[in-house]
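quick one before i forget lol
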Amino acid sequence: MTSATWLPRHRRVTGAILAAYLVALVFVLGWPTPVDAGVNDTLLRALGWLHGHGLPAWVGYDQVEFAANVVLFVPVGLLLALELYRRPWWVAALGGFGLSVLAELAQALTRPDRFATGRDVLANTLGAVVGAAVIGARSRSRSRARPRRPAADAPARDYGPR
């Protein structure tokens, strides 16, 4: 029996999207130079403009980079949680953590122009947790909202006098 036979269609689609996202993630995380190198000046100018228009001064490049890493891993948590739908949501979050650690380790060992940091692992893991928790919360609310009913063709059970 092939996996296409026993996997529900939505899991095949989710798996394909997850695989495509992971391939894109490998390119982003494995890029030889910092991904924002070409837009760094533009980002700093935009932050300066935003500071002049009310953005708090404490929001700087480091906060934007942290937020970008969080956002980058939200789909990882979402897709892993969908793919592992019979497991607790935190298993998907743990998978995002593992992926982040591997990515940062690979950067440290193979990309001298990149910066592998624990802060990136924290941000990536936070993104995976957010994505996985969204799926976990949704599946919990759906299971609570839907009362279990016996199948239409199932015989009625007699539980005796009460």
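fyi Residues 1-7 have pLDDT under 50 and may be disordered.
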